[in-house]
Amino acid sequence: MSGGWNTIESDAGVFTYLVDNLGVKNVQFEEMIALDADYLNQQSPVYGVIFLFKYPVGQKKADEAVDGQYDFAASENIFFANQTIQNACATQAILSVLLNRGDLDLGDQLREFKEFTQAFPAELRGEALSNSELIRGVHNSFARSSPFIDEGTRAATEDDDLYHFIAYTPINGILYEIDGLQPSPISHGKCTEEQFPEKVIPVLQRRIERYPATEIRFNLLAMVQDLRIRAAEIGDVETVAREDEKRKMWIWENELRRHNFVGFAHEVLKRAVASKLRDGKYDEWIDEAKQKAKDRMSERKKVRGEKEDIASP
């Protein structure tokens, strides 16, 4: 395989334009700020949800699922791929929803990928996904630019904060949890498309309850139909305009992710120093900066002293 996979953020704008760049039509993501079935139902049609959580490093795999039941037979009938490479789980979770829907326009290339891997076992599907230049290239185009390259690698320990993406989606009347690190899809019982918001929320709540009450680092994104479609159908001009503005912001934010501003800041500083040196004001500029720093420190000490006086009995 040529090239690796970079980490991407759990962000509605990132995921929306990721699937758009893969050729998928009329799909977007909405961030869920609360585990609320009514709110999720308002986004209908909901195709699935992508859940981000802290992965318990060192946890031993059990013969039985902690919640729900392994459905090994389903691996042959639905798209399920083992995760075979690091950092691919976000896109893999997204594809676990997309490639199990029969009502979405996937575009030519993703449809061909689905057909090509249809008869593959889960591990080989994972290898095919990891080696797809299209999917890897689109995925990496949304990674944050960083000037710092870590040349060393090591095995993760229990002290590391590692995060993992999984998908929940209704397939053939069953609510499935699809996690590439598990041996098969996990069934959470019968579930129609209409029941999905009500059925998935308790499953997510039980998953979160496995963690200490102090753990709040979770993120949930719903994969839904482009909200402008339904708004346009009912003549909701305000929603269409609001969604258009949101997409403009997403495009801007995604462009910022691609730029390395450390180099930009370094170049600005070099030019500023060169300008002061050229004008013979470099020492004056440094002395002025030092004095401002001293003034700020004195002001902070003064404020801190006043607070201590107020707090004294």
From TrEMBL:
Q: What is its EC number?
A: 3.4.19.12
Residues the record marks as site: Important for enzyme activity: D179
Its domain of life reads: Eukaryota
> Which biological process annotations from GO are given for this protein?
cytoplasm protein quality control by the ubiquitin-proteasome system; protein deneddylation; protein deubiquitination
- Indicate the residues that form the catalytic site: C89 (nucleophile), H164 (proton donor)
An example Pfam family from this entry, by short name, is Peptidase_C12
What SUPFAM superfamilies does its record include? Answer: Cysteine proteinases
Q: Which reaction does it catalyse?
A: Thiol-dependent hydrolysis of ester, thioester, amide, peptide and isopeptide bonds formed by the C-terminal Gly of ubiquitin (a 76-residue protein attached to proteins as an intracellular targeting signal)
Key words, A-Z: Hydrolase, Protease, Thiol protease, Ubl conjugation pathway
Note whether Hydrolase occurs among the keywords.
yes
Q: Where is this region: Disordered?
A: 291-313
Any GO MF annotation of the entry? deNEDDylase activity
UCH catalytic domain location: 4-225
Task: Please provide one cellular component term from the Gene Ontology annotations of this protein.
Answer: cytoplasm
Q: Mind telling me which residues the site (Transition state stabilizer) is annotated on?
A: Q83
The protein's matches in InterPro entries, at most eight in alphabetical order, are given as:
Papain-like_cys_pep_sf, Peptidase_C12_UCH, Peptidase_C12_UCH_sf, Ubiquitinyl_hydrolase_UCH37, UCH_C
Family membership: Belongs to the peptidase C12 family.
* Name of protein: Ubiquitin carboxyl-terminal hydrolase
